[in-house]
Amino acid sequence: GRMCYNLIQQIEAKSASIQTERVWNNPLPEIQVTYRNVTEVYFRAVPFDFAEYARPSGWGLDSKTIDALLATEPVLEWSVELPPTADYKQRTEALPAPQGLEKGFYFLIASHDPSFKSGDNQVTIAPIWVSDLALVVRNLAQTGGVDGFVLDARTGEPIAGAKVTRWTYSYTHARSWDAPDDQTQTDQDGKFHFDAAAGYLW
What we know:
Elements: H1 2-12, E1 15-20, E2 23-24, E3 30-36, E4 40-47, H2 50-54, H3 63-71, E5 76-81, E6 91-96, E7 104-111, E8 123-130, E9 133-139, E10 146-152, E11 163-171, E12 176-185, E13 191-194, E14 200-201
Parallel strand pairs: 2-8
Antiparallel strand pairs: 1-3, 3-6, 4-5, 4-7, 7-8, 9-10, 10-13, 11-12, 11-14
């Protein structure tokens, strides 16, 4: 009896999660929604300070930050109906990313409950940049430096005078952290270069 009940609960359990590209530019990417036993998914786009996200070790979100995100007024929210999973099997749908987000850093939040509350619900959060730029980076193994190009993501043309910030990863026996380390500008060919620095670079 109890084993059968648990099995039924597992089969009928609702779930929905998302995956998408980290940087959104034209043409906009898709949002891959993997789901089961739900017929609609709800989205929110919430702006966030990238530095606050990047500084802590692990690039994770603790429960306090997640609660704050869910309490923040989104700049964009929408929902999409999904084909039912009558066979109870997991299914993936590719949805178009929405138009209208201004350039910047956001958390894309998805839920199969319009309230976005915990409980019988699954909330998925993905960090995204909305940008018209593309960054090509090369690590120089022999010298420890980094160079690369900043390009127009649509045309591939180089962007001159773009500011590029280098971040470093540092750690001690007690903690680890990421922080801005240096800044430079691209030349007329869109190229930038950083000499080697202490810590792990990215």
